[in-house]
């Protein structure tokens, strides 16, 4: 197993007007001081505006690699959102964990909580709006740097300075990057066999199981 990875920051956000009052969002997440309770549906004090596409047990916590901020600085320039944690609406920030090294079904000790990787993030238009109209969404899909979600298996607490430690990796062939490629970035067009094989991944979140079925036409 890999060594524990220090958590750089933990972010939470409240629902607020985003693109007018009829389109609220909680994507503007800010660092939290001290420990935060980890519940089955996410972090205490964190909110989601549209529960049909955000939150829920399979998308309780969003983790994004702070390693990617250098890439985004090259793409977007000196954007003020990149000066702090939480620019992409993530709850957990670390170095040394990316979509290429994290796998669906991985179980981690997150602070004192136990979490499991359920799916990659599927970015949307809200990222473009958050960055003032810059094409973040499309660039994120192309670069396959969207982050991933956890479901919470055991509640606990987590805070900046705590560790995240890999405990189990039952599906080492299914990295977040590979799965994202098949279901979001278009790889299914040339790898139908891989898309079919993904059906054996029982720990995959239900929304992505449905997306796989749709892409297969079943």
TrEMBL record:
Residues 30-167 form the MOSC domain. Pfam families: MOSC (PF03473). This is MOSC domain-containing protein.
């Amino acid at each position: 197993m890999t060594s524990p990875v220090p958590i750089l920051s933990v972010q939470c956000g409240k629902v607020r007007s985003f693109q007018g009052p009829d389109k609220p969002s909680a994507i503007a997440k800010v660092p939290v001081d001290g420990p935060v309770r980890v519940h089955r549906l996410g972090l205490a004090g964190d909110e989601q505006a549209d529960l049909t596409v955000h939150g829920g047990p399979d998308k309780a916590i969003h983790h994004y690699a702070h390693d990617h901020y250098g890439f985004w600085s090259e793409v977007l320039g000196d954007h003020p959102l990149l000066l702090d944690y939480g620019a992409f609406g993530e709850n957990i920030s670390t170095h040394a964990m990316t979509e290429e090294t994290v796998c669906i079904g991985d179980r981690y000790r997150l602070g004192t909580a136990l979490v499991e990787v359920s799916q990659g993030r599927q970015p949307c238009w809200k990222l473009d709006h958050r960055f003032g109209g810059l094409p973040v969404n499309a660039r994120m899909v192309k670069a396959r740097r969207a982050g991933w979600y956890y479901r919470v298996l055991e509640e606990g607490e987590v805070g900046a300075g705590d560790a995240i430690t890999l405990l189990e990796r039952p599906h080492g062939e299914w990295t977040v990057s590979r799965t994202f490629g098949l279901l979001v970035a278009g790889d299914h067009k040339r790898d139908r066999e891989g898309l079919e094989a993904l059906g054996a991944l029982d720990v995959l979140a239900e929304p992505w199981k449905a997306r796989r079925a749709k892409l297969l036409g079943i």
